[in-house]
Structures are given as C-alpha cells and as structure tokens.
Amino acid sequence: MLALGGPRAAACLAALHALAAPGAAWDEAAFGRLLAMPGAHALADDSGFVLFRVAADEAEIIMLAVVPEARRRGLGRRLVDAAATMAAQHGARALFLEVSQANHPARALYSAAGFALCGTRPAYYPDGSDALVLRRTLSACGR
Questions:
Q1: Per residue in 30-50, pLDDT tens?
Q2: Greatest C-alpha distance within the chain
Q3: Which of these, 143, 116, 109, lies nearest to 132 by C-alpha position?
Q4: Residue 25 DSSP one-character state
Q5: Would the pTM count as exceeding 0.85?
Q6: How do the domains of the chain map onto residue ranges?
Q7: Interior CA angle at 114 toward 53 and 137, to 5°?
Q8: Between 7-20 and 28-35, two packed helices, what is the crossing angle to 10 degrees?
Q9: DSSP 52
Q10: CATH number 3.30.70.360 given to 2-137
Q11: If we measure between CA atoms, which residue out of 38, 15, 37, 11 comes closest to residue 25?
Q12: Catalytic positions, please?
C-alpha cells in the first residue's frame, strides 16, 4: 500500500475509481481538488484506495473504492485500517464516514472495522436513501 501525493495521484485515483464505480466515477479534477485540501491523504494499491482527511482531532474517510474483482478479499478492511492508523498518527481521535443505508456490503465492512452509528442524513443520496454517519474511536495505535 502506497501513500499517494503529487500531480499523478489525482489521475491514479480517478482511474481506479472509474474501474470501481463505472458510471459514477469522479474525474481527475475532482480528486485533485480533494487532495489539495489541508490534511488530505490517499493510500492505494493496484485494486483500490482510501481517501481521507484529518482536521484537528477528527478524521473523515471521504471515499473508499475497491475494483469489483478484488472485493470480498480483505482489501477494503486493510485500507480502512491503514487510514485509521495514519489518521491516529496525525492526531485524530475519531474517524468518521458516511455510507448509504442501502449499501449492505459496505455497512458490514464498517461494522467489522469497529464503526458505530452516530447519526443519519435523511434522503441524502440521489436514490433517496439515507446516509448513515458512522464513527470509530482511534488510539495512538490506530484503533
């Protein structure tokens, strides 16, 4: 797993996202804007990535993407755990994310990774599903 940064990172994330979410992929410019935010970090391998941001003592997973061929093999969990560890190393004490209530595989992953429900955003997604706001407490060891 590599930490991504610099001008090529946005292109790499956009290419992986196009494979992971055909028809809903963000473009290189969108990833470039996100990576330019203070506290933004990306970790990736050939089959997926996690993009997150650390601000003060909180961190947020902005996006987790895994290509279909690599799903259900533990990569998503490794990316989430690596993001949690790096966020804790940067001073975060909690890690947040949003997930659609309809995304049952992602919800199972996040539950197994130690996230708990802390709020909802009604009808947040274009399909009308609620966003579940999840939180994971971090320590100096990342969990």
A1: 999 999 999 999 999 999 999
A2: 38
A3: 116
A4: P
A5: yes
A6: 2-137
A7: 55
A8: 130
A9: E
A10: no
A11: 15
A12: 98, 110
